[in-house]
Amino acid sequence: MSDTDRQARLERYLAHHTDELSPLLRQLLEETERETGRSRWSIGKIEGRLLQMLIRLCGARRVVEVGTFTGFSALMIAEALPADGRLITCEIDLKVADIARKYFQESPYGDRIQLELGDALETLRRMDPQSVDVVFIDADKPAYGLYYDQALRILRPGGLVFVDNVLWKGKVLGPRITNENARPIAALNEKIRNDNRVEKVMLGIRDGVYLIRKKQEQERLSAD
Ligand SMILES: C[S@@+](CC[C@H](N)C(=O)[O-])C[C@H]1O[C@@H](n2cnc3c(N)ncnc32)[C@H](O)[C@@H]1O
Questions:
Q1: Can you give the pLDDT at residue 174?
Q2: 28 has pLDDT over 70
Q3: Which of 164, 153, 174 is nearest to 204 (CA)?
Q4: How far does residue 224's CA lie from ligand 1's centre (Å)?
Q5: 47 lines ligand 1 (CB under 6 A)
Q6: With pLDDT > 90 as the criterion, what percentage of the chain qualifies?
């Protein structure tokens, strides 16, 4: 069996043993593929279920998403929030945001979502420090480092940053990194690795996920 076949079998096995998506989310993925040809940009079932589980485990009430696209991950996040929870999701492309808005209106969880149109960095800069429980970063890769800095600023101590695509199809591995997206991602991965303000673990699921927890003040002091 080739490596590709083995990987495909593994993906199917993982998906089979993970909770199914709602009919609305399946419909959204189908429309995303029809309208954009890029349903692969959505985090998909396994990563989405992981994000949901983490949101529930840390009792998150306020979540920020950088990169809405057509709203798949936003709806997964909203579903995992308590009824009075809030997701602020940032998108710069009005066309894909229209699809997202349509599905937010159809979803029973849509009223938990606030869609912010425009450059995500501007939206993040307007947010109060230490006001958020979870930040999910999944937008333009060259700006990842700036999103990370803002995420740590707006995150409460003990909060979580979830960064997608940190392996960039394996291109961050080097030794020479020439890809224009892999370079800033690799630089950020290194920065996070050396960041004593956070506890972190990198996972190899899909295109790579970095889970980063902002330490409490006490933890930082005892580590110094
Ligand atoms: C990979 S897609 C997000 C996928 C989505 N999180 C999901 O799983 O369904 C990245 C999105 O980030 C958006 N984006 C790129 N640059 C942006 C910026 N500066 N501000 C806000 N959104 C941006 C793109 O338009 C695109 O829709």
A1: 85
A2: yes
A3: 164
A4: 37
A5: no
A6: 93
Give the span between the Cα atoms of 24 and 223, in whole angstroms: 46
- Residues in a beta bridge with 138: none
CA atoms within 13 A of residue 206's CA, in its CB half-sphere? 18
The pair of structure tokens assigned to 155 is: 């995150």
If you measure from the C-alpha of residue 100 to the centroid of ligand 1, how many angstroms do you get, rounded to a whole number?
12
* Of 92, 207, 195, the residue nearest 145 (C-alpha): 195
What is the reported pLDDT for 70?
A: 98
Q: Write down the CATH number for the domain with range 3-223.
A: 3.40.50.150
Nearest to 146, CA basis, from 130, 170, 163:
163
Model pLDDT for residues 91-110, shown as the tens digit of each residue: 999 999 999 999 999 999 99
Burial 91-101, CB ≥16 within 10 A → b, else e: bbeeebbebbb
The candidate with the shortest Cα–Cα distance to 192, out of 204, 216, 209, is 209
Angstrom distance (rounded) from CA 198 to CA 87: 23
47 pLDDT tier (thresholds 50, 70, 90): very high
> Which tokens is 132 given?
């958020």
Nearest atom within ligand 1 for CA of residue 41:
1
pTM score, whole prediction: 0.97
The yes-or-no verdict on residue 198 having pLDDT over 70 is yes
Provide the 3-class DSSP secondary structure of residue 159: strand
The residues spanned by each domain of the chain are 3-223
